[in-house]
Specification:
The complex is a heterodimer of chains A (277) and B (447). By secondary structure, chain A is α+β, with helices and mostly antiparallel strands. Chain A has one domain: T-fold, CATH 3.10.520.10. Chain A contains 7 helices and 14 strands. In chain A, helix 1 (14-35) packs antiparallel against helix 5. The radius of gyration of chain A is 19 Å and the shape is globular. Chain B has a single domain (47-446), classed as monomeric porin ompg (Porin, Beta Barrel), CATH 2.40.160. Helix content of chain B is 3%, strand content 56%. Classes of the chains: A alpha+beta (277), B mainly beta (447). Chain A binds chain B through residues 63-64, 66-67, 70-71, 73-74, 76, 140, 143-144, 147, 170, 172, 175-176, 178, 180, 190-202, 241-244, 246-248, 250-251, 254, 258, 261, 264-265, 268-272, and chain B through 9-12, 15-16, 18-19, 21-23, 25-26, 28-32, 35-43, 76-77, 341, 399. Strand 8 of chain A pairs antiparallel with strand 1 of chain B, so a sheet runs across the interface.
Chain lengths: 277, 447
């Protein structure tokens, strides 16, 4: 998952704790192994190296791709699992290394879900294009792992994969799980806000440390695949609470893509959110 | 006819429909049909504890209605600001120290401008006891590095004849993987007394109405407290706490409204006195009390909290000794018994016993020279007290907590035979026993 993962459980039973930890980590590793674009021989690797040949995918992968297709439509093409190749031009390392228009345009020719032929369960991806399910898989893994945990125990449980999390229910000995939203100023190291989560999902989009700075213009790391350029005026961090971690994560990502309209978008969704600029 | 709207691509202008579409898509992805609605709130910034307390002593003695509020502001990095307000409204009567007697006794009031008479056989009380007290405290707690914390506070309280100002500091540090916490606290208080009619000079007689010749101006009292504490987690069910505290007071430590009867060495009856012609005044000889100008206390305190399957046993013991020769022992036991997930019952038992101060005298032999120190204040006498109580608490859905507490307090004193003088004191109630009830409602909530 590329980040620290933890499961917190309120229990007096060591064996129950071990069983829950076991099922959560098994599920996390299963999803990581299956969908990480960094690992060889998984379904994502096969699609990305299919050279334009059709690939038949299993049900779970098909469900994720269907979900991505829905998000693509909902976002007018700005949530796009084929946008990962833009990273060839953009490396948000804090430098002033902003790519040339021509370079971005050249890569954009290999971006666009509309160019993909998806006829469940068969996917045809043009040679040179890539898909990356990383924008969905972590939140998906949190929800799946939390339901594994809930199947294992009735005790209150919190599954947290790098800040995207789900609480199955409130601990009996407190009013809820206390979750801190990180401060924008990382040097301070203190949470910006404390949230009490009794049940449901919480996910954060945004990373204030990943940006480029050139000629006084700050380029945040959220890329708009319709232009190939970073979304302008995107908030630095958005945290959303929703019934599931997947919904929370997607709402946070979609709001980021709205740029300066992020707050308006979030307010329209009737969800609890914390947006920092 | 136009095409149905499903042909129209969803756009940002329709962003309100995003959440609904996303819910459907997520259910399909996760293979679920319904989910529990999310429940997340920002943590309350303030925690407020409020309490209304009613205290009533039997026999029309003291009655107190008090309101207390404590507000804690928790900052994200473990800094805590605590503010408290207390308002007490006291009415009723309190024993003044004079012994009961077969005949009526007349006293000059503390203000010195009137007299009142106690009927035969009754313990003399001061019925003009009426006061409103307002107390404020402010405390700041702050971590010092990863293992230590620092606490500093100020306190002030005011009533019509008393002003208290105080400051306190505390340092604590965790050791032993945070299983042990060692703390050191220091507190200073500077109090000023401005008694009605002026503070009487110790051991001077109670005088006729309007004679304030033995009254002094404002008096001061300083108190310093030091507390050294260790708390230790023994295992996941048991935590223990040990404190040693030292307290040193100096200044005017008398109760300006307390007197001692001067008695006949043979009968033990109060020595009669005749007021000056044409003025009202005391019917007998009374002396204002006199306490030493210093007091040093040492106390040891131990507490254990034992958690067993939701139930909590909280037991503590305190031993106190001071250089007035008062030794006291306090045992306090509470047992919290949960009823369901949301409520609990908590019985409370407290036993207290103390020896009398070395200058405690129920009366003074008029044939002997006056001692340097003498007080008949029942609080300095020998007594045992038992408190029995029951508390019921319950939590609301949102996590706020109500509680109701009812307690009965009974103090039973005894006067050692060697303090009785003459033939008539044996049959009298020389020690004013005390029975009281306490009722309290509390509500704690976040804000």
């Amino acid at each position: 998952m590329g980040s620290p993962c933890e499961v917190l459980l309120e229990t007096d039973s060591e064996s129950s704790a071990a069983a829950v930890a076991g099922s959560v980590s098994t599920e996390a590793w299963r999803i990581e192994d299956k969908f990480s674009r960094y690992l060889p021989d998984n379904i994502v690797h096969r699609i990305n190296n299919s050279g334009g040949a059709p690939v038949e995918v299993d049900d779970e992968t098909a469900n994720l791709i269907d979900f991505a297709a829905t998000l693509y439509e909902m976002s007018d093409g700005r949530f796009d699992i084929t946008s990962g190749v833009l990273r060839e031009a953009w490396n948000f390392d804090g430098s002033d290394n902003v790519p040339a228009d021509s370079e971005v345009d050249r890569i954009l020719e290999r971006v666009g879900w509309s160019r993909v032929k998806w006829n469940r369960p068969e996917l045809i991806l043009a040679a040179g294009m890539q898909i990356d399910l990383g924008g969905i898989a972590k939140e998906y893994a949190v929800d799946k792992a939390a339901s594994e945990a809930a199947a294992e125990t009735d005790d209150a449980c919190l599954v947290n994969f790098g800040g995207d999390l789900v609480a199955t229910k409130a601990p009996t000995r407190s009013k809820g799980w206390q979750v801190g939203i990180d401060a924008l100023d990382q040097a301070q190291g203190l949470p910006q806000k404390l949230i009490r989560l009794q049940n449901g999902g919480l996910a954060t989009s945004g990373d204030a440390r990943r940006f480029l700075l050139k000629d006084g213009i700050r380029y945040g790391h959220i890329l708009d695949p319709t232009t190939g350029w970073p979304v302008q005026n995107a908030p630095r961090s958005i945290t959303v609470a929703a019934d599931t971690c997947t919904q929370a994560g997607m709402l946070a990502t979609l709001a980021m893509l709205e740029g300066k309209g992020a707050e308006t978008f979030l307010a329209d969704q009737d969800c609890k959110y914390w947006c920092y600029r | 006819m136009y095409e149905t709207d499903k042909e129209i691509p969803m756009s940002r202008k329709n962003s309100k429909s995003v959440a609904a579409t996303l819910t459907t898509a997520t259910c399909a992805l996760l293979g679920t049909t319904s989910t529990t609605p999310v429940n997340a709130q920002e943590e309350d910034e303030w925690e407020l504890d409020t309490a209304l307390l009613y205290y009533n002593e039997d026999g029309n003695r003291v009655q107190d209605i008090s309101f207390k509020m404590l507000a804690n502001r928790n900052f994200v990095d473990d800094r805590v600001l605590s503010l408290s307000l207390g308002v007490d409204s006291l009415t009723g009567a309190t024993p003044i120290g004079a012994i009961p007697f077969a005949g009526p006794q007349t006293f000059t009031s503390p203000s010195g401008n009137q007299v009142r008479t106690t009927p035969p056989g009754e313990i003399p009380l001061d019925p003009s006891f009426l006061d409103t007290r307002v107390a404020l405290t402010a405390n700041w707690q702050q971590p010092l590095g990863r293992l230590s914390s620092f606490n500093a506070g100020l306190s002030a309280s005011s009533e019509y004849d008393y002003l208290h100002l105080g400051a306190n500091f505390k340092l604590s540090r965790d050791f032993n993987k945070r299983n042990t916490t060692v703390s050191m606290g220091l507190a200073f208080a500077a109090d000023e007394l401005d008694p009605v009619g002026g503070a009487p000079m110790p051991l001077t007689p109670m005088l006729d109405v309007d004679d304030l010749s033995n009254r002094m101006g404002n008096q001061n009292k300083d108190v310093m407290d030091v507390v050294l504490g260790v708390s230790q987690i023994i295992n996941q069910n048991l935590i223990m706490q040990f404190n040693y505290s030292f307290s040193s007071s100096d200044g005017y430590l008398n109760d300006p409204y307390k007197i001692v009867s001067l008695v006949d060495p043979v009968t033990g009856d109060p020595v009669p006195r005749i007021p000056s012609p044409g003025v009202d005044g005391p019917s007998h000889e009374y002396r204002f009390e006199s306490r030493p100008g210093e007091r040093t206390k040492h106390s040891l305190f131990g507490q254990a909290k034992y958690y067993m399957n939701g139930k909590v046993l909280d037991a503590s013991y305190r031993y106190m000794t001071d250089d007035w020769d008062i030794d006291s022992h306090t045992v306090d036991v509470r047992f919290r018994w949960p009823i369901g997930d949301r409520s609990y019952l908590e019985p409370h038992f407290r036993y207290y016993t103390q020896t009398h101060a070395n200058f405690y005298r129920t009366s003074l032999d008029s044939s002997l020279p006056l001692p340097s120190y003498a007080s008949a204040d029942y609080r300095l006498g020998e007594f045992d007290a038992i408190t029995l109580g029951l508390k019921y608490g319950w939590k609301t859905e949102s996590g706020n907590e109500w509680s109701a507490r009812l307690e009965a307090y009974s103090a039973d004193g005894s006067v050692p035979a060697n303090l009785l003088i003459g033939s008539n004191q044996g049959g009298l109630e020389m020690y004013p026993d005390l029975d009281a009830i306490i009722a309290q409602f509390s509500y704690s909530f976040g804000w």
